[in-house]
Amino acid sequence: MIGTQLDQTSLETGKNMTVTPEAAWKVFEQADLIHSNEEIENAYVRMAQEITVDLKDLCPVIVCVMNGGVVPYSELLQQLSFPLRTDYIHVTRYGGNLTGGQISWLAEPHVDPKGQHILIVDDILDEGETLENIVKYYTHKGAASVRSAVLVIKDRPRKIDYMADYVGLHVPDRYVFGCGMDYKGYLRNLPGIYAEKESG
User: Fold this and answer.
1) What's the pLDDT at 1?
2) Domains along the chain with CATH numbers
């Protein structure tokens, strides 16, 4: 997968889980550490501080994008000490394919967005198309404001000129996993962020 320009979320679907747990663990054991747990914790603290400044008086709805957003969502929530509500959505544009297609909503919002201040939390901004479409969806539904937060942004060329409002860390244009991001369905639970070892 190294060097491709495919959004790595394309590999999260069942049809593409072609490795065994043992093979995934071997990839982890040989992987390069990109960001340590300490760096990630510091990023969460900074992001939470920025979010608090902007949203503490707005009683926002904090929305988790399943499945990758679960870890950063949980970590950020624990550091937001102001009134808020929670929600989750599940969106894909792959459906088992390696290239993106139409946005498919597997789980729509449970909290009516109309008039609400929304913060979308996801794991990674890769191509940016999915996150941009989520923001447009909430805007169309009448949200008072829509912001987004991602743990990492991948440094790569992208066609979509969209940037998250709150970004924790940057990662190189490699296949990364840990802290919510998966390696072919595994390794989301790793406390650090790793990249598959490059050949050669």
Assistant:
1) 30
2) 8-195 (3.40.50.2020)
The DSSP-derived string for 86-133 is EEEEEEES-TT-SS--S-EEEE--SS--TT-EEEEEEEEESS-HHHHH
Q: CB count, 10 Å around CB of 128?
A: 20
User: Which pTM value belongs to this model?
Assistant: 0.87
Nearest CA-CA partner of 10 in 124, 165, 133: 124
Cβ-count burial 48-77 (b if 16+ within 10 Å, e if not) = beebeeebeebebbbbbbebbbbbbbebbe
CA torsion 115→117→123→127, rounded to 10°? 60
- Across the beta sheet with 117-125, the strand order is 104-107, 85-92, 61-66, 117-125, 145-154, 166-171
The whole-number pLDDT of residue 198 equals 83
* Nearest alpha carbon to residue 70 among 50, 53, 86, 51: 86
How many whole angstroms separate alpha carbon 73 and alpha carbon 122? Answer: 7
Extract the tokens encoding 169.
């860390």
pLDDT of residue 160: 85
Token pair listed for 43: 């990023």
Q: Which band of pLDDT confidence, cut at 50, 70 and 90, is reported for residue 200?
A: low
**Whole-number Å distance between alpha carbons of 161 and 193:** 25
